[in-house]
Fold this sequence. Notes:
The chain is of the alpha/beta class.
Amino acid sequence: MNIQFRNARTACRTLGLTAGLILSACQPAQPEATAAPPAATEAPAPADTEEAMVETEEPMPTAVKIGVLNPTTGGLAFFGELSNQGIQLYFDNNRIESVDVELVYADTAGDPQQALDQARRLVEQEEVDFLMGLVNSAVVVPLAQFADEAQVPLLTVIAGAQAPLGPNSSPYVFRSAMANGQQDRPLGWYTASELGLTQGATAAWDFLVGEERAGSFAEMFTDTGGTILTEQKPPLGTTDYGPYLSQIDPSAIEVVYAFFAGPGAISFLQQMGEFGLSPDIQVVASGYFTAGVLGAMGGSAEGLVQAAQYTTVLDTPENKTFLELYEAQIGGEPSVYVEEGYLGAEVAARAIESLGGDLSDIQAFLDALAGLDFDGPSGPIRFDKNGQSVRNVYITRVVVGEDGTVQHEVIYVIEDVTLDWTPE
C-alpha cells in the first residue's frame, strides 16, 4: 500500500526530495437489471442490493506525526542539514505498511531556548506524536527535561551530552547515537594496551563535549597504565594552536588525544606538522574528528587512529544498502551525520511498525523502543536500561590509497560498547 511522506518546507529546501500518496478505491457499479425468466421457470429470489455490492476500499492509513528538531540556521546548520538529510533519506525509501508518516521540521539554531520554544510548538500546536533530532549537546539537557515534563518521547540522534541518558535518565528519552566518551573510553584502552603508547597529552576545545570526551579517554588511558602529562584546552572554535602545541614536549610525549572538528581539526593536524610534532607523536581521536573533512586534511591525516561508531568502509548488507541509496539519490559519500540521522529514523520506524502505527499508548511506544535489537548501517544496536544505545566501536587508521586519496581502514572492532564500558 502506498504511504505518503509529507515534508515541511525546511526539509524540501534541504533535500529537494518528495514522495506521494495514491489511495485508490475500487467499487464496481451496480449490475443492470435483467428480464425475469419465463413463467414456467421458478424465478430466483432477487439479491439484496447492498449485499450484491462488493466494497473493496482500502482502509485509511494510521497517521504518525514526528517533530524533527535540528539546527538549520546558525553555526551548526551544516550538521543539522546533514542529519535531516539522513532522516529524510530513510523515510523516503522505507515505507511502513498502512502508516502515513509526516515529518515536521523545526529549526533549533543550536540554541537551547529556541530549541525549547520549537519543541513546545511541535507538541502543543502541531500535535506531534514524538520528537527526534538534536545535533549539539547544549540543547539535550533542557529538551530531555521538557520531554520528561510533557511526557512526550524524545529520540536523540547525534548530540552526546552524557547526563540525560545516565543513571537518572527520563523514561521518555532515548539516544540512538553514542554518548560523549562512549567511543573515547575504548580508544584510551586501545592506545595504552594495543598501541603500547603510555605517555600522553590531551588537546580538546574547552566546552562540555571536549571535557566529556577528553576526560573519558584520559580515565581509561590511565586505568590501563598510561600517564597524561599535559591537558590543553583551547577555546571553542580555535584554529591557531601555536600556544598550546608549544606545551607538548616531543621528547616526553608519545601520543596526543585530540577533539576538534571541521576547520579546527584540519588546522590542528597541519600545525602538528609545522611544529615538528608529527609524525613522531601519534594522534588519536574520535570518529567525528575527520567527519566531512578527511579529504581536505590530505596527507596530514595519514596514520591518524580513531574510534568511530560508523565508517563507510564497513562491509555489511545494511551499510551497502545505505551507501547505494545515498549515491543514487544524493551523490558522493555520506558523512557520519547523515548516517546517524538515517539510523535514528530506522529506530523510530521499527518501533512505529511494531505497533502498527498506533502510538496512542505512549508506554507501548517506549517499550517498543527499549526492546529494539537490530543491525543498521553501523552494525548492531540495542538500548541499555537508561535508553542509551549500545553499539560497536571501530578502531580505524587513515591510510593513503593507491590513487593518492586518504581513506579509513578498520584495524580493530570492539563490540557491545556501553557508556561505562571497561575491557573484559
